[in-house]
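quick one, two chains, predict together pls
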Amino acid sequence: MSSATLTRNHVPRERTRLLHRFSTRHASWIPVFAAIAILLAMLIAGQLYFGTFVTPRMLSSLLLDNAYLLVLAVGMTFVILTGGIDLSVGSVMAFTGILGARMLAGGVPAAVAMPTMIVCGAAVGLLVGVMVQVFDVQPFIASLAGMFLARGLAFVVSLEAIGVKDPVITWLQSARFAVGGWYLGPEGIAYQPNGWYITPTGIIALLTVAAAFWVLQYTRFGRTVYAIGGNEQSARLMGLPVARTKLLVYVISGSCAGLAGVIFTAYTGAGYSLNGIGTELDTIAAVVIGGTLLSGGSGYVIGSLLGVLVYGLIKVAITFMGADASWTRIIVGALLLLFVVVQRIIVARSGRR
Amino acid sequence: MHSGPVVEVSGATVRFRGETALDGVDFRMFPGEVHSLMGENGAGKSTLIRAITGALRLDAGEILIDGEEVRLASPADAQHRGIGTVYQEIDLLPNLTVAENISLGREARRRGAIDWRGMRARATEVLRELGLEIDPSSILSTHSLAVQQLVAIARAISIDVKVLVLDEPTSSLDLDEVAELFRVIRELKQRGVAILFVSHFLDQVYEICDRITVLRNGRLVGEYLTRELLRIDLVEKMLGRSAGELTSRQTRESADAPHEPYLSARGVTSTPGISDADVDLAEGEVLGVAGLLGSGRTELARALTGVDRLDAGILRITGAPVSFGAPRRAISLGVAYSSENRRTDGIIGELSVLENITLALQAQRGILRRMRKARQRELAASWVEALDIRPADLDRPAGTLSGGNQQKVLLARLLALSPRVLVLDEPTRGIDVGAKVEILNLVGDLAANGMSVMFISAELEEVLRVGHRVAILRDGRIVETAASADLTIDSLLALVARPDVEEA
């Protein structure tokens, strides 16, 4: 046998070895790659179809417009990873938003109001967590109760929208940090003055993602979250603090909802008790599109970030097309279905081994 | 340094909702020794194991570790005291990496963050001790069950174990894998670890264990050195027997092989569990099935009734080949199965006696042909009377009945279908003596009226008493089918226990 054939044989073997190693180590990242692929496909298709779709302004506003959703999705990811669900986040966001707006309008400084909003969100989360963990209520029902409670509390605070003129909130709303203007346009490198920007709310959202990533990958608490999603009974037999962890994920989700309340108030410049109706479902959709298994135990916050961006991009594309906004829901629904089916296939395949 | 037993349990008693699962059991384990806990279903093995591993608290009795009394409040607590456990179903996390599964809950950390590199290195080290070369970063679910089992052991020994509990570790392993596991066990034994090895494979117990403790019905039968305990004596102690109890049984003349079987099975194989089984069941015949736990007796019943799919083999009813895709099809052909797990696969405790009895018949008729309420009551009442179900209250939730009466309700449900073949899997387990006798008599009556019954029980005396013929199962094969008139308890015991290797 000549050396040429030897090397030719060697290369594929090396490749299958790497492929094997990848599939045994990182199979759970595949849905995340799928989300990246969909995001890229949408950007490319949008660019080809509309001509000027991918611009620094559009991409920057994507983060601005969806910062609240991103924060909600991070909290939701924790809950879904344990195999639970939190339907209360949209209402909690509205409740903390209107509560904050009322406090600020009443002259309470932002330094007090904003932490209060987050603590109130955490309190609702704690309540849901206690129902789930201590009283063994289905997460669906427990968080549904939390949803009604928070919505009701929002109505108690105020039925009218309350505008916010606090300087801190105004700064959160209007500050823009320019990041540059160069970008890859349709005719090569192009420049748009003050094209790329990032807002304080965007920074908060990205920091939340980073913190959540670190917690999930590098703390015992984070790994316990995955363990519970894998098999709660096993996790308990392994001696992991299951009860504490399950309680905490709902508190985290509630806190994120409180933080989203701050961001959404800054985004709209007002608190309103009817905000965020159905947002919990958008959040779940984004998390699932980002590749997190609804049955728990598999998924990444990075995926949820991508899921939120895909979700936001669909909205932008619909606006570009001038089509009816209801198409957003239909397309998100279709994507969701696709992802859930893909996930079922992955789960079925790993179950067969 | 304390010498003597590393674990000493005395007077262990556990009750579940009035039922005594463990009754004053003493048990001890010595360092560097492999100890086996033997007993049939419901003997209290798993209850005792769960008490030792901290998964369950004793209602009475005490546990001493190294001569010191301890209260094991949780599995984590037991782990801290050096008790590592590998449960029957591999209780690991399939979605995480091998390295994490080994060190979860006690991960190496550096500056507050999990040190993945250190964790992998530690895992590699532990796996190498077990002679295992696998990628610690790979996801657990990508490995075979055998490897997962060894990972579970790696987890258990990665703490400084004094005691390693292996609950049925070999049930899903093939021969080579078992040999590999035994090599590991011997190595741990050398290191002075006390090992509790639970398995229903007698060969394996005799190969690896130094000491055997036998439990029956939640009570201690005795503790023996393996080399001093003959296999046949062990089986006798597990199954229990008192020769005096054997009452005369009605034998029938046609005790030899039936001329025309109603149901006939050839080469029935359903992996894992049963292979190449031939069964003939004549009209009006009771076929007893004897075998130890794990011999394939339940698997045989499930294969013959369409619960499990056949991998090979053929079923015939009055000579015509049939295939049962599902129990529903089997029932429509007149073959009904009663599961050994009355509580989980049988009785629906929240529903009334009436509903439990009419359930299967209504399901067979379909939703559109609903039985009238009056007809349902009439039917249920007649069965309650015929089987003497007590209390004779049709509207009482079935879960509140005693075990024996629950079993009768289940039988009524199946009998309402007017089956031709009835397969009963341990119908007498966990019920009182009076109810046992009633059920045995009922089986005899049914057969006298032309029904074919397959009767599975762990109690040889019952099998012998009720069966016209007895099929003996061992390691998933029918090793012999004999007329019960030709068998005695002793000869049956010998067949079940495989005396040809009894010197051990």
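Chain A touches chain B through 30 residues (CB under 8 Å).
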